[in-house]
Design goal:
The structure holds two protein chains of two kinds. Chain A is α/β, with parallel strands linked by helices. Chain A is 46% helix and 17% strand. Chain A has a five-stranded parallel beta sheet. In chain A, helix 2 crosses helix 6 and helix 3 runs parallel beside helix 4. The longest helix of chain A is centred in the C-terminal third of the chain and has 18 residues. Chain B is an alpha+beta fold. In chain B, strands 2-1-5-4-3 form a five-stranded antiparallel beta sheet. Chain B has a five-stranded antiparallel beta sheet with strand order 7-6-10-9-8, with helices on both faces. Helix content of chain B is 48%, strand content 24%. Chain B contains 22 helices and 22 strands. Classes of the chains: A alpha/beta, B alpha+beta. Chains A and B meet through helix 2 and helix 6 of A and helix 17 and helix 18 of B.
Chain lengths: 149, 707
């Protein structure tokens, strides 16, 4: 019964991305496959933390099942957001997937060190990108068992 | 002489020596005979006088004849009395002299009665005898003769004494305190008033014996010194003329030094054992010897085997058994001379070395007094002649301190080192004018005994080196900064530049995906070119990124198994190998020192190129390696399209391409990256190609050193 509930319940995905082109591309890509549920997009780290802590305008924000996080953002960047999530007992169970155009080894190592659940380097080629998003959705939303709120 | 004594003196000389000597008084028979003699003589004088008167005047009256007789007798008696008194007086004088002789004789004189063929008892002893044996006369006379001393071979001596009347022998007497006195005894036997008496004259031999013993000892001692002397000692005859003198005595050291036996040397003269070049100096030496009694000189002696021996000689004239001789003490100084020569040479060498040194040198003794400075020292410190000539070292120090940037620090160090003579120190000095010196200071210690002789200070001008070092350090800092810049640049390329490119490329693709066919054919073609351009630009950026990472991201160089590297490279190329059906072979590959990721990339790029630029038939590629002058020379040989000679250098440049994208796609970064990797490993890379008959890429890597 619980599993069934899990399957039927709409998933909430939080996308933290300052570049609207990127976020649109991501939304388009997700839409290429099937409905994910709700996708919330915030444009910087501070907004992301406010969303997660339901502060200010986000007082009614849903708790996301998964967070897609860009690293390079103005003000509070992705690494800081990752750190704050992973040290917060209420938030740290939420899987955080890093989306970056960098494949610099130090970036990869650092984010895993901070507790990232996956690091994805965005391919330049659209077809490759679409394939990646498909795998991402399939793995995290279909196969992975996620903790309940 | 006292008259009283005179009367007591008996008519016997010897008996009169002692007043209280009954045994020496005359016996009564002898006295009667003498009185009768005197009476007869008186009668004879009277009768003679009577006869003379009667004969001269026969008719003289009786009275007259009596008177004349009496006168004549009186004259006769008076004359006799006169002669007798003269005789007595003479006898008394003689007796006195004898007594003096007896008492004052230096020798001990004993008078011993000889009875029954043996010395019987002591009759008399003189003062010398008493002194010699420590007795008074009475004590001595009361002693039995045997206690005073009897010669050992008494019987034989007595026989000799009785036969010849005298004998001389040595014997030992015993003194009162028991010690023994050796004497030489002259014994005479004579008759005294019918008794046999021995006059024994004894000479104390103690001193003579001691002197003889001392002489023997001394001779033995000198003989020993002579024979054992380390210097050769040679005794040479002194002849009146200056002629080559004969050697008549020499010691062991002389035989040893010259190699002659005693007999051989005795047959030689001084000239025979001297270098002929020395002969002309002989007259001068001889003259000096005769004038001063001694001479000293250096000479070269010639040993029996012809060896030349440098000698120092001291000669003096000595008397030996009445003969004049020269005693030569000869010291072999060959070793010392050669040592002196070596020392002179070493000193000259050291002085030359110090003076020609590029370092300034100052040597001080253990009291910190300046012993030596070289020219360079003065030059470095800028000391003028008059400062150097000043004997007061504090002037030197003062001038030195004036030049320094931190004089108090220098002064403290100098004082510290003088207080700790065993320490060495090495540091840098800086002058006010920016000159930098290396200063080294070390104690001068005796090698054998560690004796502290002083201290040596060395100053080297390292200003130029310092400047070079500073320039180098600045360049290193620049390089580090530029590396950091490059790293940042790489990041900028990989992220900030890639992101907009992704936007261009992705949305163009999205456009073509969503709207293909809805726009016209040209629009689709345009989109196609745009997407292709974005893709190539992305490739270029990735190539540039890879190139920049060779230096920046390089790992430490460690031993790497090249077989593994080769296999990894092939695994990465698996797809293109399968597509081209390439045949890739290789020799056994060594272990090298390197960065395994980069070496994989190197081989991957080279083999990848060989596959890419193939002819129609499947490519055949061979990887081999050989050793050459401490390097591994790797080669990747293909049978592909080859490279024209004019392009062989170009191809290793950044973004260099020999073909269009449509012919052979690529970023033009592959070989540039290869060169960067090889150079980082300390090797070089080049290509050889027979025009169209394929190419061989070579690269070298240093052999792993086993340490």
């Amino acid at each position: 019964m619980n599993e069934k509930q899990n399957h039927t319940r709409a998933r909430v995905m939080l996308l933290v991305e300052d570049n609207r082109g990127e976020s649109l591309l991501m939304i388009e890509s997700l839409n290429e496959h099937r409905a994910v549920g709700s996708i919330s997009v915030v444009e910087d780290g501070e907004e992301a933390m406010a969303f997660l802590r339901r502060e200010g305008i986000y007082s009614n924000a849903p708790r996301p099942d998964i967070i897609l996080l860009d690293l390079n953002m103005p003000r509070k960047d992705g690494r800081q957001v990752l750190l704050e999530i992973k040290v917060d007992p209420k938030l740290r169970r939420i899987p955080v997937i890093i989306l970056s155009s960098s494949d610099a080894p130090e970036d990869i190592a650092n984010t895993y060190e901070l507790g990232a659940n996956a690091y994805l380097s965005k391919p330049v080629d659209l077809d490759e990108f679409l394939a990646m998003v498909k795998s991402l959705v399939s793995f995290w939303l279909d196969f992975a068992k996620l903790p309940r709120n | 002489m006292e008259p009283g004594e005179d009367t007591e003196v008996s008519d016997d000389v010897m008996c009169s020596l002692r007043e209280t000597d009954p045994p020496l008084g005359l016996d009564p028979g002898t006295r009667i005979v003498r009185l009768l003699g005197i009476f007869a003589l008186t009668c004879a004088i009277l009768l003679g006088s009577e006869l003379i008167v009667l004969f001269v005047h026969p008719r003289i009256s009786w009275w007259a004849s009596r008177a004349a007789t009496i006168v004549l007798a009186g004259v006769a008696v008076t004359s006799m009395a006169y002669f007798v008194s003269r005789r007595l007086e003479h006898m008394r004088g003689s007796e006195h002299r004898f007594q003096q002789l007896f008492q004052q004789a230096g020798d001990a004189i004993l008078l011993v009665e000889f009875r029954d063929g043996l010395p019987y008892r002591l009759l008399e002893a003189n003062e010398a005898a008493c002194a010699m044996l420590g007795y008074t006369e009475d004590e001595m006379r009361s002693k039995p003769i045997s206690e005073i001393g009897v010669p050992k071979n008494l019987t034989q001596l007595v026989t000799e004494l009785t036969d010849r009347g005298h004998v001389t022998f040595e014997m030992t007497m015993r003194a009162k305190d028991g010690h023994e006195v050796a004497v030489e005894n002259h014994a005479h036997m004579f008759d005294l008033d019918g008794r046999a008496v021995i006059l024994s004259i004894n000479r104390d031999l103690t001193e003579r014996k001691a002197a003889e013993a001392a002489l023997r000892d001394s001779e033995q001692k000198f003989r020993m010194i002579f024979e054992n002397a380390s210097d050769a000692i040679i005794l040479v005859e002194m002849t009146p003329q200056c002629t080559p003198a004969r050697i008549f005595e020499a010691n062991e050291a002389a035989y040893r030094m010259l190699g002659y036996t005693k007999e051989e040397l005795a047959a030689l003269s001084i000239a025979d054992i001297s270098d002929p070049s020395e002969w002309e100096s002989f007259p001068a030496i001889d003259a000096q010897l005769r004038k001063n009694g001694q001479a000293a000189f250096d000479i070269v002696h010639i040993a029996k085997d012809g060896a030349r021996i440098q000698c120092e000689v001291g000669i003096r004239i000595v008397e030996l058994g009445g003969r004049k001789a020269s005693l030569a003490i000869v010291r072999d100084v060959t070793a010392r001379k050669s040592m002196e020569e070596e020392l002179r040479w070493k000193t000259a060498f050291l002085e030359a070395q110090v003076d020609s040194s590029i370092d300034g040198v100052l040597v001080v003794d253990s009291q910190a007094r300046r012993i030596l400075v070289n020219r360079r020292f003065a030059q470095i410190w800028g000391f003028s002649e008059d400062i150097l000539d000043n004997k007061d070292d504090s002037v030197l120090l003062e001038h030195a301190l004036d030049r320094l940037k931190r004089p108090e620090q220098f002064y403290e160090k100098v004082m510290y080192l003088y207080d700790h003579p065993e320490e060495s120190s090495w540091d840098e000095l800086e002058f006010e004018d920016g000159t930098v010196l290396d200063r080294y200071s070390a104690p001068v210690l005796g090698k054998a005994d560690g004796h502290h002789y002083g201290r040596i200070w060395t100053f080297r001008d390292i200003t130029e080196r310092k400047r070079a070092e500073q320039a180098l350090a600045m360049r290193a800092a620049d390089l580090a900064r530029s590396n950091a810049d490059l790293q940042h640049f790489a990041y900028v390329i990989s992220h900030d530049l890639q992101e907009p490119l992704r936007m261009v490329s992705s949305y163009l693709q999205l456009l073509s995906r969503r709207y293909a066919g809805r726009l016209d054919q040209k629009a689709d073609e345009f989109i196609g070119f745009a997407v292709d351009g974005a893709a190539r630009m992305s490739g270029l950026i990735e190539g540039l990124l890879a190139y920049s990472r060779v230096g920046v991201r390089g790992k430490e160089l460690v031993p790497v198994e090249c077989e593994t590297v080769f296999n990894d490279a092939l695994a990465n190329l698996q797809v293109s190998i399968e597509e081209s059906s390439a045949v890739i072979t290789h020799d056994p590959l060594p272990v090298v020192v390197g960065d395994d990721n980069q070496l994989v990339q190197l081989l991957q790029n080279l083999i990848g190129n060989a596959i890419k630029f193939h002819r129609d038939e499947p490519p055949r590629i061979h990887v081999s390696v050989k050793e050459h002058e401490g390097n591994w020379v790797f080669s990747v040989q293909d049978d592909g399209i080859g490279i024209a000679p004019e392009h062989r250098e170009r191809i290793f440049g950044i973004f260099e391409r020999l073909h269009t994208q449509s012919e052979y796609p690529g970023s033009g970064m592959g070989l540039a990256i290869c060169r960067r990797i090889v150079e980082r490993h300390g090797g070089r890379i080049w290509v050889e190609s027979e025009g169209t008959a394929g190419s061989t890429f070579y690269f070298t890597l240093p052999e792993a050193r086993h340490e």
